[in-house]
Specification:
This is Sulfate exporter family transporter. Keywords: Cell membrane, Membrane, Transmembrane, Transmembrane helix. One of its GO terms (cellular component) is plasma membrane. By secondary structure, the chain is mainly alpha-helical. The chain has a domain at 86-284 and 307-341. It has 18 helices and no strands. Helix 11 packs antiparallel against helix 18. The radius of gyration is 20 Å and the shape is globular.
């Protein structure tokens, strides 16, 4: 590879990095003013990217770096994301709670995907919303998108609308504790099953009680762990579909399970075995966050706003109905197992 080939992506990467820096700065200001990031830098980067693309279409000088950021940097971020997930939480939760959480995720995935398809959303967009709603919001969408070959517009739409609903859940969920007469443990379980991100779980539970925050965080971390099996399952399904669609010839293992999924699982295994020191973890996780924000800026720069407008109403309805379905399924588990975390 020549020096000019290496230099070709630099302008586009620099543009995406500048947008990411602005998004991270805005999140920092938001945390200073409100105490917590209601709108994360991932979402802000997409919105800034879309705004820039609406006012100006990047030319050939910028597109190689934008494509590089949206693909390779995102895949590297997914590998590093694996270091933030530890199977140790499963053993702390206990087998029955783990089975219950896995069942909620599975049923919610099926229900959300069914709702999206019933509302005539494209298959990939329905999968993104289902994974974001059922597992861990933005992180799940980001991890699943390259596995299924999702378009930039689909990723931007699913993250943007899911983020808005996520903030609404954080603000309104505490009202259910007195309305449903939930104990601190029961409410913590409900929050861990329905709120999208770990920081949002803390925001939704700490006003109710510290015990709720403890239970909610544990349940949420076990729920995040479901991301591994889901992305492997989707990767195998996509690989099988591609294999069946090809007339003759072999298919490479990397087409069935992409390299970044193998890397994600390897990092999760290393973290679970305690082979990643805390000092290294303190570098890997922030690096994954920064790379993800840069990739989201690139996705925003590739978004045609007209496409999002066309599906906006259906996406909003799908996310809302999916969230209500998740809430109903979670309440069933709380009713069945709430006494264990009373």
């Amino acid at each position: 590879m020549t020096a000019s080939s290496w230099a070709r992506p630099l302008p586009g990467v620099a543009l995406c990095a500048a947008i990411a820096a602005a998004a991270l700065a805005l999140q920092w200001l938001e945390e200073r003013w409100t105490g917590r990031p209601y709108v994360e830098a991932i979402v802000i980067a997409i919105l800034i990217g879309v705004a820039v693309r609406t006012a100006w279409t990047p030319g050939s000088r910028w597109t190689p770096g934008i494509a590089f950021s949206a693909k390779l940097l995102l895949e590297i971020a997914i590998v590093l994301l694996g270091a933030s997930i530890s199977a140790h939480m499963v053993w702390q939760a206990g087998p029955w709670l783990m089975v219950g959480i896995a069942a909620v995720v599975a049923v919610a995935l099926a229900a959300s995907y069914g709702i999206g398809r019933a509302l005539r959303l494209p298959r990939r967009l329905a999968i993104l919303i289902a994974c974001g709603n059922s597992i861990c919001g933005n992180s799940a969408i980001v991890a699943v998108a390259p596995v299924i070959g999702a378009k930039s517009e689909d990723i931007a739409a699913s993250i943007a609308f899911t983020a808005v609903l996520g903030v609404i859940v954080v603000l309104t969920l505490p009202l259910l504790a007195p309305l449903l007469d939930l104990s601190l443990g029961q409410y913590g379980m409900l929050a861990g099953l329905t709120v999208y991100a770990v920081p949002q779980v803390l925001a939704a539970t700490l006003p109710v009680g510290f015990a709720s925050a403890q239970v909610g965080t544990l349940v949420k971390l076990v729920r995040v762990l479901m991301l591994g099996p889901v992305i492997v399952g989707l990767s195998l399904a996509v690989g099988r579909a591609r294999r069946e669609g090809e007339a003759g010839g072999g298919i490479k293992a990397a087409q069935i399970v992409p390299w970044f999924i193998v890397g994600f699982l390897a990092m999760t295994a290393l973290r679970s075995l305690g082979l990643i020191p805390d000092a290294v973890l303190g570098v890997l996780v922030p690096t994954a966050t920064v790379l993800t924000v840069i990739a989201m800026a690139a996705l925003g720069l590739a978004v045609d706003l007209r496409v999002i407008r066309q599906v906006g109403g259906r996406v909003t309805l799908t996310v809302t109905l999916s969230l209500l379905a998740l809430l109903g399924i979670s309440l069933v588990l709380v009713a069945l197992m709430g006494h264990r975390v009373g």
